[in-house]
C-alpha cells in the first residue's frame, strides 16, 4: 500500500522532489556557529482553514552568518545529520523556542503551540530524548505547547527506537507530527503504528494542486487517512488562493505557506498576529 508517490517518482502527478544538494558548510564552521549562537529560529504561522485562526507556528532554523548573511537549512542541515553535533544543535534550537514561548506569554498572546523539527538521529537517540525532556521540564513550558515534527524516513531508519521514543514523547503530552507526508515509503500499517497527532502533507502535493485535477484524489485519500486516524491534517506550502480553497474544500484542517506568511523572526511574529486579528 504505497501512499501518494515514491521518492524520486517523476510521473505527471508528481513535481520533482529532490533538488540538487547545495555546497555544505564544514563541521568545524557549524560547531563554531553553534558556540557563537548564530543559529536562530524563524517562525511560520499555521492556521485553521475553516476559521482562519492562528493554530501555531513552526520553528525553522536560519544561520545568521557573519559574512554570508541569513542562510537557509539547505546549506548546512545535511552536514549535521549523522554527527553528534546534531543533538546539541537541536537542544539549542529548543532552548531558544522555549524562551520565545515564555516571552510571548508575557506579551499576553494566546498560548501558541510551536512545532520543532527533529532529525532522524534525534528521534532514534534515547539519551537525546532524556535531555530534551529534562530541558523542557526545567523550563516550565507545558509539553502540550510543543509538537515534534518527524519524517517517515526518520522513523523508518531505526523503527523500534523511533517508536519507543515517540511513545515516550506522546505519553508526556507533546504533539507529534508526521512531516513531508507522501514522499516516503510508509505504508498505512506503519503509519497507524505511530502515535501521531498531526499529518503534514508535503508541499510537492499541495503546491499548484488546483491546476492538477489528477492530484485531487491522492490529496483526498491522504486527508481521509488523517481523518480516519483522528489526526489533524496540515497542508504545507500553500501559495495561492486556488490551492487554499481546494484544500479547504477537500477537508484539510490547517494550512501553512507563503500565502499566509513566510517564516519570520520572533520579533515580527507578535506584530503579525496583532495585524492578523484586526
Ligand atoms: P520542512 O520541515 O518541510 O519545512 C518546510 C519548508 O518549506 C521550510 O523551508 C519553509 O520555509 C518552506 N515553506 C513554507 N511555506 C512555503 C511555501 O508556501 N512555498 C515554498 N516554496 N516553501 C515554503 P526551510 O525553512 O528552508 O527548511 C527546509 C527544511 O530544513 C525543513 O523542511 C526541515 O526539514 C529542515 N529544518 C528546518 N529547521 C530545522 C531544524 O531546526 N532542525 C532540523 N532537524 N531540521 C530543520
Ligand atoms: Ca517540518
Ligand atoms: Ca515538511
Ligand atoms: Ca521538507
UniProtKB/TrEMBL annotation:
Residues 23-277 form the EAL domain. The keyword Phosphoprotein applies. The keyword S-adenosyl-L-methionine does not apply. Keywords: Phosphoprotein. GO terms for molecular function: cyclic-guanylate-specific phosphodiesterase activity. One of its GO terms (biological process) is phosphorelay signal transduction system. This is EAL domain, c-di-GMP-specific phosphodiesterase class I (Or its enzymatically inactive variant).
Amino acid at each position: 500500500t504505497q501512499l501518494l508517490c515514491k521518492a524520486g517518482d517523476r510521473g505527471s502527478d508528481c513535481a520533482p522532489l529532490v533538488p540538487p544538494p547545495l555546497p555544505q558548510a564544514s563541521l568545524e564552521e557549524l560547531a563554531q556557529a553553534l558556540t557563537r549562537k548564530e543559529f536562530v529560529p524563524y517562525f511560520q504561522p499555521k492556521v485553521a482553514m475553516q476559521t482562519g485562526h492562528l493554530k501555531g507556528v513552526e520553528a525553522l532554523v536560519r544561520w545568521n552568518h557573519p559574512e554570508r548573511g541569513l542562510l537557509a537549512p539547505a546549506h548546512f542541515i545535511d552536514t549535521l545529520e549523522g554527527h553528534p553535533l546534531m543533538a546539541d544543535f537541536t537542544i539549542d534550537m529548543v532552548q531558544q523556542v522555549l524562551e520565545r514561548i515564555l516571552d510571548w506569554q508575557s506579551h499576553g498572546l494566546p498560548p501558541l503551540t510551536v512545532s520543532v523539527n527533529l532529525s532522524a538521529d534525534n528521534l532514534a537517540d534515547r539519551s537525546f530524548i532524556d535531555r530534551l525532556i529534562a530541558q523542557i521540564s526545567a523550563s516550565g513550558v507545558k509539553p502540550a505547547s510543543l509538537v515534534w515534527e518527524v519524517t517517515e524516513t526518520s522513523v523508518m531508519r531505526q523503527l523500534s527506537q523511533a517508536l519507543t521514543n515517540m511513545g515516550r514523547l506522546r505519553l508526556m503530552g507533546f504533539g507529534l507530527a508526521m512531516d513531508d507526508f507522501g514522499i516516503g515509503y510508509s505504508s498505512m500499517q506503519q503509519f497507524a503504528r505511530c502515535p501521531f497527532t498531526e499529518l503534514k502533507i508535503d508541499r510537492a502535493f499541495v503546491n499548484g494542486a488546483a491546476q492538477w485535477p489528477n492530484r485531487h484524489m491522492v490529496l483526498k485519500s491522504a486527508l481521509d487517512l488523517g481523518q480516519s486516524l483522528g489526526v489533524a491534517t496540515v497542508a504545507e506550502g500553500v501559495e495561492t488562493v486556488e490551492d487554499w480553497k481546494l484544500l479547504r474544500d477537500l477537508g484539510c484542517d490547517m494550512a501553512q505557506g507563503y500565502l499566509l506568511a513566510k517564516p519570520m523572526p520572533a520579533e515580527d511574529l507578535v506584530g503579525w498576529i496583532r495585524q492578523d486579528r484586526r
